[in-house]
Amino acid sequence: MSFFGKNIRKIRIAKKMTQTEFAKLFNLKRTAIGAYEEGRAEAKVDTLIKISEYFRISLDVLLKKEITVNDIFHLTELNNANYASFLSDDDIIKYLSHNEKAKLIEAKELLLSDIIPASSNVAVKMPFDCKTSVASLKTGDIIFLKHHSDEGKLHLAIHNNEVCIIEKSASRYTVYTQNNSFPKDDLTDFKNLYNIAGLFANVK
Question: Rg for the chain (alpha carbons), in Å?
Fold first, then answer.
């Protein structure tokens, strides 16, 4: 069984493309894309190769397995159990392709204490570059947060009305702001502490 039809539909939705827009990339008709997605027709070899090369996804992956968001966007995940994303691929696609309907917000919105219900998980765009011992975060990266959680080693919080990243070690914390980094023994003067549960690198 080929996963091709299901995979190109996933690619198309993740890239915010209509069937017509997708078809034009490869000089195909919209009806052909619909037929591929519904499993009513199989693409020719040259079409498979073009799609594979255009999206930089191997033919083996495109045909033989259900692709993930990481395959589609060539995203960088934190390969550590502490940072394993708690979101499904479908959830991530919603964040990336339907931002206006999902809880993907600018980090500065976290300064408003009532913007996010305490029970919510949320995705935030990283507001500045930050290199910790376990991850390099870049401006525009999408980070997935768990509200008010002290799990894991990497957190986002508010300190002196500024968004910061906190790295937790065995005995203390290192705080990273846009222009500085400094050690802390505790987090009593920090607001809105979030555990960073997953990271996906900014898609250029």
Answer: 20
Last residue of one domain, picked from the residues 67, 94, 122: 67
SS3 of residue 122 by DSSP? strand
What are the distances in angstroms from CA 19 to CA 7, 12, 35, 128? Answer: 13, 7, 10, 36
| Tens of pLDDT, residues 152-182 | 688 888 888 788 899 988 778 899 998 889 9
97 touches 16 (CB < 8 A): yes
| 3-class DSSP state of 203 | coil
Write the DSSP symbol of residue 147. Answer: E
The pTM (predicted TM-score) of the whole model is 0.50
Residues spanned by the domain of 131? 81-200
Please indicate, yes or no, if residue 72 is contained in any of the structural domains.
Answer: no
Residue with tokens 């034009």: 24
